Amino acid sequence: MSATRMTCRDMVQFLMDYLSEELPDDTRTVFEMHVNACPDCVTYLATYRETIVLCRESFTVREQDVPVEVPEDLIQAILAAQKKIAGQA
Amino acid sequence: MSETGTSAAVADEAALVAGLRARRPDAFETMVRVYTPRLLAVARRLVGNDEDARDVVQDAMLSAYRSIDKFEAHSRVSTWLHRIVVNAGLMKLRTRRRKPEESIEPLLPTFREDGHYRNELPAWAAASDETAERNEMQRIVREAILNLPESYREVVVLRDIEEQDTASTAAALGITPNAVKIRLHRARQALRTQLEQHLRRGRS
User: Is the pTM of this model over 0.95?
Assistant: First the structure.
């Protein structure tokens, strides 16, 4: 990469540091210049970000995912296992 | 698996922690009763089925009992247990027999001589408002994450899903911060490629 030009390959390489605001100022400037002029990199940047959001959302536990009733058999199994450990101590 | 909107809580966490430190059985039972439902949901998301999720919660509760002395006074019991469950869940996934891991190399972008993308980059359709479609998409995303090679999956779970920072992820996995960053970036690129097939605009 020259000091003033960046390719799409360079953009992808610097992408994560760009998003976490870890790029040095001069590199960030060249990075943004490239993205502003490159529709493919605009798409890549947007879909990379969207991927992170989707990962987070897909594992989020919502209130309706939490069982309303405490599963008593599991509770009893855990309590019994704990007693066993405590007995050994 | 973020921790927001926790419905379960105890009135006096300090008293609960004191009881746990004193190894009082009633304190342990309170902890198990209050936090199990939510933790079960967290574990189920991570390991994908009820049976393994129950094992994970049990392992986590016992591990919490053993390590109560490491509980730091400024943290919350729910946060502490959540983290223990996620670690137990990752352990469970590690021991589970899976099909052989596939390299993520073919899922990384490739470039022409001049540094431009070799393949076209379609824009993605906006997220659907329909619940069924969203649920299906989330299932696809979870599947893609769980099918990543283990060393990538664990980094994605801790950094992007649990939102732990690079340093604590590195410490948890026993790798360097730089290795965390490299794996995370590669994993995100591989996931992006897989999701592109489902989300490209104008898909049928």
Answer: no
